[in-house]
Amino acid sequence: MPGDGLVLASDERADLLVDFSDLQAGTELTLVNTARAPFDGLPSGAGAADPGADPDALLVFPQVMRFRVVAGEATRRPIPNELAADYRPPSSSELVDAPRRAILLVEREVEGEPNMLTLRELAPAGENDPGPAVTVTESGQTDRYRVAASHFEDATTFFPMLGQYEIWRLINLTGDTHPIHLHLDPFQIVSRRAIRFQIPDGGIEDRDLTAAVSVERDPADTLDHRIDDNERGLKDTIRVNPNEMVEIAVRFTTYSGRYMYHCHILEHEDRDMMRPFVTMPEELMPFMG
Prior knowledge:
Layout: E1 28-32, E2 63-68, H1 92-95, E3 100-108, E4 116-124, E5 134-138, E6 141-149, E7 166-172, E8 178-182, E9 187-194, E10 196-198, E11 211-214, E12 237-240, E13 244-250, E14 257-263, H2 266-270, E15 274-279
Parallel strand pairs: 3-7, 5-11
Antiparallel strand pairs: 1-2, 3-4, 4-6, 5-6, 7-13, 8-12, 8-14, 9-13, 10-11, 14-15
């Protein structure tokens, strides 16, 4: 358990083992949410939950759960060193040839209406391809993309094969943290890295996007972009903070068909931050190019 509290976004879960045996009967403990809303990825330490803390810095209803300790015999149980015996992270050889997909998290201001939030799926673009483009620069190499899909109703562009690992790059170009949730199967976080980006005036259009992304820290960025210890197991929701690119290893193994991935903040997915994907049986792999 981190000393400054556990960071969980909407739809994230954690199994906590709590030892109340050294507390007197009648003791009350309150679990408090100290995060700001909208959440910008900056830590809100456990000290913010102190009764003497500024109440204006907390949410309107920060109390999540209250425990009341009752009298009884304390029974201590050993905790195994390995809690998840069935978990194995993918090896580097399993990921070296994995297909790569890139998704931009984008917020577009709309005059007189709520802002629209979208998952912009990217496709490779040549230097001579006309129209707006997104460039991603890493270690001196620049890749050029165009937006292949912007809205939920756009044509499906993701067709992952069952049993095959893929790397999905989630690149956040907004000022909020987005908990991105994939339906059907869990995944594994591979990396979380700082980015800096530039979007020219008018660069965010309804369907197109012009942006330059570099995998390096922005001088104004104060986040540490580490992978938390509780994020190293299997996940079905991952936090993507501002100025951040998160890579996840995805492998669907159960069913073929149409599924979704989306931001798990209700207002965001309702404002178009949701896209479909179709899982394909292995038998169709020779026909998918």
